[in-house]
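User: Could you check the structure of this?
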Amino acid sequence: MSYFCRDRETNTVHSIDTRVIDIAAATYHLLDPEEPYTLNRGFVSDPRQVTNGENPEAKPNGSFHANGTALDVSLNSRSVSQISRAAISCKAGGVGSYSKQNYVHIDCNEIREWGS
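Assistant: Sure, the predicted structure tokens are below.
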């Protein structure tokens, strides 16, 4: 999993916290799609890389990607709203909805939610 979630800019591999994998898997199970997730972002070696369109994400989210506790995912067959509602229902970490960029941020840090 660490290689799959590597920093694609630098090809750097870092361990991914199994809790975020579990949250993403539970979310996926609730949605029951017939396709795999698209991983939009996993590990990043430089948290300043983490942007949501033109504006940088809140600094902690970049740090979460840099320490292997966050994933940004999407599904062609499900909306950002559907994915984020499923992730929120897991009550296990942070969930950010990025409708314009078409992905959902999932992390295994404190329980919270936000959206754009």
